[in-house]
Amino acid sequence: MQRIKTFKTLTHAAAAASFLAVQAVICVGTVYWAVAATLHMDGTAAIVLGVIFAVPSTYLLMMVCRMAFEAETDPANQ
Predict the structure, then answer these.
(1) Helices 7-38 + 44-73 axis angle, to 10
(2) Model-level pTM?
(3) Average pLDDT over the chain, rounded to whole?
(4) I need a labelling partner for 38 at 20 to 30 A (CA). Which of 11, 24, 29, 46 fits?
């Protein structure tokens, strides 16, 4: 089955990915803030925690973008 790749579907995919990515960043940022505040982290410890959170967050954002592209370009959804 051929994916539909027009300006309209790609624009919709970008909009959906942007919306979901913002929601994911807000959720991950809130969890990071809660953990760092609960453990009274500052300086180097907070940066290390941020790096630890960045790796799965990057994977999450890539998956969100891929899922949005697949959903918006699927012919069954048109």
Answers:
(1) 160
(2) 0.78
(3) 92
(4) 24
